[in-house]
Specification:
The structure is a single chain. 31% of the residues lie in helices and 25% in strands. It is of the alpha+beta class and 450 residues long. Helix 10 runs antiparallel to helix 11. The longest helix is centred in the middle third of the chain and has 25 residues. The two termini are 36 Å apart. The relative contact order is 0.13. The N terminus is likely disordered.
Length: 450
């Protein structure tokens, strides 16, 4: 039990209840003060906690690791922590699935699967989030043919506002399954997720610098030729860093301990932290430093199991906005973003990240019904971000962009209903499952409507 809390008590059926204490997300830009925190040790305890909150007229929000930049998990009511709902329930090798408790961090899942000789097909670039938090907000990596983490869900367990436990899949409660794989915490509390998995495989990563003009001119070819292609553009420069990940027959050729420390810790975290701190104190230095830092990472090639290739440590704290645009709109939108930065007085020390995803069938997925490309803009923590994000968002929305549910944006239900063909399907399901808005908060009121 966290000792910073000054009072605690056992709730009904033994669930752990903690009294009021501020909750902050990873970036520190969202703070809420829940009246109570509950840490259920079982699905039954969770269901009882929800019924108790409903009887008391309290709102309820589940929270993961706090890696979202929005107030999706903020509440002044009951905060549900999933710390005791962790671990693998079942591995079904014949079906090619793993069922995992909702509070399990992705890092623990990836390590456990690797020990069993299994892997997810695709994943994002960090693995600190819980599986429920990551999927509920639509966390994704990059892929030509393989989609977000949510798109790899084959079944899930959901506790609704009245304490009912629903098993959801394409065959069981299919209308809930179609929405709850990315539910933003609006439909209920996810308690377990079943993912499709496959025998562990090797990926060869090829990282190399490339000019902005070359990447954008050849993007379609680079996308088509690689299973997983992504790149970073360094504002105030014409430089990009590209990464191509493709399946490999081996042999395994991992990054050496020394090279990994130098590239991933010293340069990408330690030196990058110092560069951003310098830029925050002296913004005028940013363009010159960007030209140097954008050339600091050299080309390298390595081969390893998926989570060691897809993910990397991210210790420098920042704020982020990310939009999904139709894939064919990526290059025009990115060129407009570069032109905007070039002609503005903005000073941007963080690179812009670009990834892709194929169309999927999840109601509120940013890739719902269309092949998508993602443009993510970042600002170092403590640096004014509003002018940059506002200008970027204007460009993204002109291309019918869909904001990532866990990242900063200003869109509301009116706009979102215009870019999500199945938006009404989701809100109608919410009305049925949570008519009294037990799981409501200000963020959901803005993005989903009353």
């Amino acid at each position: 039990m966290n000792t910073q809390h000054t009072a605690q008590a056992n709730g009904r059926n033994g669930s752990r209840t903690q009294r009021r204490s501020p909750w902050r997300n990873w970036a520190g830009n969202v703070v809420s003060r829940p009246a109570r925190e509950v840490t259920p040790a079982s699905v039954d305890e969770l269901a009882a906690a929800l019924r108790t909150a409903a009887e008391r007229g309290e709102r309820v929000k589940p929270v993961g690791a706090g890696h979202s930049f929005t107030a999706a998990a903020a509440t002044d009511g009951v905060l549900i922590r999933p710390d005791l709902l962790t671990g693998i329930r079942k591995i079904d090798r014949e079906a090619g699935t793993v069922t995992v408790e909702a509070g399990t961090p992705l890092k623990r899942l990836n390590l456990a699967l690797a020990r069993e000789g299994l892997s997810l097909t695709n994943m994002g670039d960090i693995m600190e989030q819980t599986v429920a938090g990551a999927t509920s907000t639509g966390t994704h990596g990059t892929g030509r043919d393989s989609g977000s983490i949510s798109a790899q869900i084959t079944a899930l367990e959901l506790v609704t506002a009245d304490g009912t436990v629903l098993s959801c899949s394409e065959k069981e409660n299919p209308e809930v399954f179609a929405a709850a794989r990315i539910g933003i915490g609006a439909l209920g509390v996810v308690t377990a997720i079943t993912f499709a998995v496959e025998p562990v495989f090797l990926l060869t990563a090829r990282e190399e610098p490339m000019s902005f003009d070359k990447v954008t001119a050849e993007f379609d070819q680079l996308f088509a030729e690689n299973e997983h292609f992504e790149f970073y553009w360094f504002p105030h420069t014409g430089n990009c860093s590209t990464k191509r990940n493709n399946r490999s027959a081996g042999p395994e050729n991992p990054v050496s301990a020394l090279s990994g420390w130098f590239e991933d810790e010293l340069l990408s975290n330690g030196l990058f932290q110092a560069v951003n701190s310098l830029g925050r104190a002296f913004p005028a230095t940013i363009p010159s430093v960007a030209k140097i830092s954008s050339r600091a990472l050299s080309a390298r090639t390595y081969t390893d199991i998926p989570y060691k290739v897809f993910t990397s440590p991210r210790r420098v704290r920042f704020l982020e906005m990310e939009y999904a645009v139709p894939r064919e709109a990526l290059v025009p939108a990115l060129r407009e973003l570069k032109a905007m930065v070039d002609r503005s007085p903005l000073r941007i020390s963080f690179p812009v990240e670009v990834r892709t995803a194929p169309a999927d069938d999840i109601a509120l997925s940013t890739a719902s019904g269309r092949d998508s490309a993602y443009i993510a803009v970042h600002m170092y923590k403590g640096t004014p971000h509003q002018a940059y994000f506002t200008a970027a968002e204007r460009i993204f929305t002109e291309h019918a962009g869909r904001p990532h549910w866990g990242k900063i944006h200003t869109r509301d239900a009116e706009y979102l209903s215009s870019v999500y063909p199945r938006f009404g399907e989701f809100t109608a399901l919410r009305d049925r499952l949570d008519p009294d808005r037990l799981f409501g908060n200000d963020y959901l009121r803005r993005v989903l409507g009353g």
